[in-house]
Amino acid sequence: MTDLRALFGIEHPVVLGPFGGLSSVALTAAGSYLGTPSYSSPEQIRGEAIDARSDIFTLGVILYELLSGKVAFGGRNTAQILHATRKEQPIPVNKLNVEVTSPVGKLIDRMIMKNPGKRPQSCDDVIAEIQKIRDMISSGITAEEETGFRGFLKRIFGDEN
Predict the structure, then answer these.
(1) Domain at 71, CATH number
(2) Helix (H, G, I), strand (E, B) or coil at 128
(3) What is the spatial distance between Cα 13 and Cα 34, in angstroms, rounded to a whole number?
(4) What is the pTM of this model?
(5) pLDDT for 79-98, tens place per residue?
(6) Domain span at 88
(7) For residues 83 and 46, what is the distance between their CA atoms, to the nearest angstrom?
(8) Smaller CB count within 10 Å for the chain: N or C?
(9) 3-class secondary-structure state, position 15
(10) Is 103 exposed, middle or buried (0-12, 13-18, 19+ CB in 10 A)?
């Protein structure tokens, strides 16, 4: 798996050196914060070590905004945004946009969990879950139906529509 931070040069961007040459510098150090407040993970805000789960949080926040038209963690200023990201739960995305299916809403909810241990652990996990959701949608069976009696009947007898 490719670390998205390395792929996009977030930790070690290429910049112009003092004499116009290119050099690679680290912008962040342990215990410091640098980032866009609305898209930063709680662990990044706290100055803790970050890994792919921080990127998954950011992707979840972007998906939330794309599907709801609202930021997941808002405020009137940077301090309020950082506080909301660390302490508040956003309204579930499928409550703001009824066209978002329950499985997609639940995936996004998990991606933006405060505790990195409760998020999908890798981008591969997110991709696998998206594929599973896509397969369920194309088969006409929701996540709830897949494990329930209604899903069992649909699989046995097919959809009569």
Answers:
(1) 1.10.510.10
(2) helix
(3) 13
(4) 0.70
(5) 999 999 999 999 999 999 98
(6) 35-157
(7) 11
(8) C
(9) strand
(10) buried
